[in-house]
């Protein structure tokens, strides 16, 4: 959290030199920067509401060749590539200023204001916060190096540290030890700590250089998360080479890509022996082995001592930056300003990962979320993150505390479970995962299997096969069916206030029809205005005598339930025709219209635009929800609490239904449409 200084606010003039003689420290400063007393600014602070003006960004660029402070600012701007990517921006209109923010504290308890470290915050007409190029790398902060902390009577906490060409292995070991010895259960996946890796899981022994079955005794292992970036048949473990790779020395590092060889080397340097790497530990041409291994991802990553995350490359052939010489070039540029060593802070780990290829891949979500400790290799430096702390190479932030108010502590909120509620943890994971990319879209369920398995264990949901199927949370099916593609905010979910389907069945993998244990929701409403009220179907389903107009066997995963069905006309929101849609628009908002002589807007549905939907659709009821605005004509139909129904638009073929979209409709309009009861076979 960035804390703005509210004490000892001083005016601009109080930070100007009173004398007229320019000191040696000011020779490399422009006339504007030479008038500032940087020592006093960093000692007492400048309030964000009274920033000191620095001139236009164009003037700062012009003076960057002679002024060391202007050079720091221009260096940051050039790193964003905004001049190349957005040449239309007139930088002469961007007025810059400087104020200070507090760096925070590594330890609990009160601290005198002057003991807090400060950093300079360069403003630019709000451009840093609003322009996408600047948002990607984060705001412009200028830090003081650790060697100057004593000049202010402060500890080196949260001051800058020089980054070497190669990673300081001893420093990484220190980070791991601080977490292990001081954070206790906060940094352990406590619901899995009593378990070992399943016996069918393999690991790489980095000492004997062999792929071996996971030891049966208690042991520590590391996991690797990285981007494949294409086919890797030449280094994968296959049926043909697994026997050779299982003997000591059988794993030849010369045949492996750089990400993997560097990871093996780094694990060895850290004093660990076992590492799990998917390309080596899964027999890639054995479908059964793949299935069993993928269903163990919750254990592989959830039980890992830490996970190495290769976020600095785009393929497995890229090295881990800094793991060995000449694999990275530190970009920390230090300028001496009035005797003080200042540098522009590289992106936080959140921003650095946001610019990586790694974070765009769907598979890497669960690999990160399930890991209790993560070591990120990025292009510029290595970061360590656990549930309590964030450490990095370029800022002195090591502490035994399990809590800090450091500016570094911006968690990416990808730890698992996200919530104490099982469905909200599932919902959050699905939303995060589906924002990412998959080479093979059908892999989406496998890419979430580790998370769903961990949910089962964390919340005691029983048999994973009965709690989840095809990525759907069956115990919360009323909520899980409400996923939708929102044209404005992709992939959001809606709340359920009352379940209106009493009994659910599913076709299992053996073709049998089995009941589901779906939790019911019933928030009682006193709805005097609802005349007539909505009534759920009264029939009792008999799985052995369910009518179906097809001679084909039902596919596993088919849902069977009884609800009400009705047809409504639809029209594109705003009167737009489907033909006018932009190719980039995949889904659109449609109004649901009543079947009266003068059609009324009675609901809203989100539908795919390609192919164009028909003018009328069949809808089935799922559940009741509270009133929301902007979804129907509130002047024609009276709103009241609990007046809306979650409905699914469906298409039917030979008795089987498929989802076409999801919508909301007013209960009065639904009852007036004279819906019929129907047994639904939803695939």
TrEMBL record:
<protein>
    <submittedName>
        <fullName>Heterokaryon incompatibility protein-domain-containing protein</fullName>
    </submittedName>
</protein>
<dbReference type="InterPro" id="IPR010730">
    <property type="entry name" value="HET"/>
</dbReference>
<feature type="domain" description="Heterokaryon incompatibility">
    <location>
        <begin position="222"/>
        <end position="367"/>
    </location>
</feature>
<dbReference type="Pfam" id="PF06985">
    <property type="entry name" value="HET"/>
</dbReference>
């Amino acid at each position: 959290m960035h804390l703005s200084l509210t004490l000892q606010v001083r005016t601009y003039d109080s930070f100007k030199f009173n004398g007229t003689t320019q000191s040696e420290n000011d020779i490399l400063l422009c006339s504007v920067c030479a008038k500032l007393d940087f020592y006093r600014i960093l000692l007492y602070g400048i309030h964000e509401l009274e920033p000191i003006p620095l001139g236009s960004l164009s003037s700062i660029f012009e003076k960057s060749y002679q002024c060391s402070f202007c050079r720091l600012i221009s260096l940051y701007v050039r790193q964003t590539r905004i001049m190349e990517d957005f040449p239309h921006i007139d930088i002469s209109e961007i007025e810059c200023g400087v104020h200070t923010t507090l760096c925070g504290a590594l330890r609990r308890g009160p601290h005198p204001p002057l003991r807090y470290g400060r950093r300079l915050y360069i403003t630019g007409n709000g451009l840093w916060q609003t322009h996408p190029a600047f948002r990607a790398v984060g705001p412009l902060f200028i830090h003081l190096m650790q060697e100057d902390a004593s000049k202010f009577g402060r500890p080196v906490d949260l001051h800058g540290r020089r980054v070497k060409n190669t990673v300081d292995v001893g420093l990484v070991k220190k980070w791991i030890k601080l977490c292990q010895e001081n954070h206790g259960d906060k940094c352990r996946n406590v619901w899995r700590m009593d378990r070992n890796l399943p016996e069918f899981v393999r690991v790489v022994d980095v000492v004997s250089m062999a792929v071996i079955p996971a030891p049966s005794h208690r042991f520590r292992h590391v996991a690797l998360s990285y981007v494949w970036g294409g086919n890797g048949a030449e280094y994968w473990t296959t049926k043909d080479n697994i026997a050779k790779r299982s003997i000591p020395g059988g794993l030849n590092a010369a045949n492996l890509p750089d990400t993997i060889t560097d990871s093996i080397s780094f694990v060895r340097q850290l004093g660990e022996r076992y590492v799990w790497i998917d390309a080596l530990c899964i027999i890639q041409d054995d479908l059964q082995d793949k299935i069993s291994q993928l269903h163990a991802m919750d254990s592989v990553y959830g039980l890992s001592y830490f996970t190495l995350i290769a976020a600095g490359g785009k393929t497995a052939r890229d090295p881990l930056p800094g793991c060995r010489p000449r694999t990275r070039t530190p970009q920390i540029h230090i300028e001496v300003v009035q005797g003080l060593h200042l540098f522009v802070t590289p992106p936080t780990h959140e921003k650095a990962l946001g610019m990586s290829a790694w974070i765009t891949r769907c598979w890497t979500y669960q690999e990160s979320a399930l890991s209790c400790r993560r070591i990120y290799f990025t292009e510029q430096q290595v970061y360590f993150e656990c549930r309590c702390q964030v450490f990095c190479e370029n800022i002195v932030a090591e502490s035994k505390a399990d809590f800090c108010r450091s500016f570094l502590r911006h968690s990416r909120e990808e730890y698992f479970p996200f919530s104490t509620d099982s469905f909200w943890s599932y919902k959050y994971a699905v939303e995060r995962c589906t924002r990412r990319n998959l080479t093979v879209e059908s892999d989406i369920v496998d890419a979430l299997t580790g998370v769903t398995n961990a949910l089962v264990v964390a919340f005691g949901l029983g048999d994973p096969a009965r709690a989840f199927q095809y990525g759907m949370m069956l115990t919360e099916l009323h909520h899980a069916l409400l996923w939708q593609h929102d044209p404005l905010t992709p992939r959001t979910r809606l709340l359920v206030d009352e379940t209106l389907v009493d009994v659910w069945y599913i076709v299992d993998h053996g073709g049998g029809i089995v009941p589901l244990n779906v939790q019911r929701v019933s928030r009682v409403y006193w709805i005097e205005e609802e005349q007539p009220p909505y009534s759920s179907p009264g029939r009792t389903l008999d799985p052995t005598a369910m009518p179906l107009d097809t001679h084909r066997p039902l596919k596993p995963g088919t849902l069977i339930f009884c609800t009400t069905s009705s047809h409504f006309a639809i029209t594109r929101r705003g009167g737009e025709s489907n033909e006018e849609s932009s190719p980039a628009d995949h889904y659109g908002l449609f109004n649901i219209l009543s079947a009266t002589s003068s059609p009324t807007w009675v609901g809203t549905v989100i539908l795919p635009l390609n192919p164009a939907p028909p003018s009328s659709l069949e809808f089935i009821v799922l559940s009741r929800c509270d009133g929301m605005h902007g979804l129907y004509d509130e002047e024609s139909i009276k709103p009241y609490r609990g007046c809306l129904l979650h409905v699914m638009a469906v298409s039917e073929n030979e008795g089987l239904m498929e989802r076409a979209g999801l919508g909301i409709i007013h209960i009065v309009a639904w009852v007036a449409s004279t819906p019929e009861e129907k047994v639904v076979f939803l695939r």
